[in-house]
């Protein structure tokens, strides 16, 4: 695929290819996932793509019983909550994503610091397939 400009659209295109991409500031090296067009550390706008390994650890999480409509459509509700988490990537940036493969009804069994790996969840919306970033235990 052709190189995408650093943008949310480009980020989504890479997710479809099962690549987790962030942006790296060419001046100070700060990393952002999802990518940003402007560095919040040094304010300049020269960013380049950097591919992440897709590994990290659980930094914080919450069980969500009443989610947004697209999660309710997927069968998540009060009786089947899901785990929304902050994941600290191996490269340093923190991303918010759902964690699969853990029991959100038993949050006491979910360990902060547990190692996670990126998954690319595909979901059909009408005629289109969208890919969203999720994580699962290693
Ligand atoms: Zn910078």
3D structure, described in words:
By secondary structure, the protein is mainly beta. It has two domains: 1-51, no CATH class; 53-138, OB fold (Dihydrolipoamide Acetyltransferase, E2P) (Beta Barrel), CATH 2.40.50. The chain has two helices and eight strands, in the order αββββαββββ. It has helices at 8-16, 69-73, and strands at 21-25, 31-32, 47-51, 55-64, 82-89, 94-99, 115-125, 128-137. The strands form two sheets. Strands 4-5-6-8-7 form a five-stranded mixed β-barrel. It has a three-stranded antiparallel beta sheet with strand order 2-1-3. The chain is globular, with a radius of gyration of 16 Å. The two termini are 29 Å apart. The mean pLDDT is 93. The structure holds zinc ion. The site of zinc ion has 8 residues, from loops. Zinc ion binds next to loops.
Give a quick precis of the structure.
By secondary structure, the protein is mainly β. It has two helices and eight strands.
Q: Report the β-strand fraction as a percent range.
A: 35-45%
Which oligomerization state do the chains in this entry correspond to?
A: single chain
Rg to the nearest angstrom?
16 Å
Order of helices and strands: HEEEEHEEEE
The poorly predicted ranges are none
- Helix % is 10-25%
Index terms:
mainly beta, 138 residues, single chain, 2 domains, 5-stranded mixed beta barrel, OB fold (Dihydrolipoamide Acetyltransferase, E2P), binds zinc ion
Protein topology:
Layout (H helix, E strand, L loop, with lengths): L7 H9 L4 E5 L5 E2 L14 E5 L3 E10 L4 H5 L8 E8 L4 E6 L15 E11 L2 E10 L1
Bound molecules: zinc ion (ZN).
The site of zinc ion has 8 residues, from loops.
């Amino acid at each position: 695929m052709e190189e995408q400009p650093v943008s949310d659209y480009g980020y989504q295109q890479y997710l479809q290819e099962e690549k987790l991409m962030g942006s790296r500031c060419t001046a100070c090296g700060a990393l952002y996932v999802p990518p940003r067009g402007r560095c919040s550390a040094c304010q300049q706008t020269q960013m380049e793509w950097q591919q992440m390994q897709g590994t990290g650890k659980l930094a914080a999480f919450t069980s969500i019983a009443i989610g947004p409509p697209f999660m309710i459509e997927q069968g998540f509700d009060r009786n089947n909550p899901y785990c929304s988490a902050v994941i600290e990537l191996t490269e340093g940036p923190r991303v918010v994503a759902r964690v699969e493969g853990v029991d959100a009804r038993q949050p006491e069994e979910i360990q902060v610091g547990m190692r996670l790996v990126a998954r690319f969840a595909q979901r059909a919306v009408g005629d289109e397939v969208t890919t969203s970033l999720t994580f699962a235990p290693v």
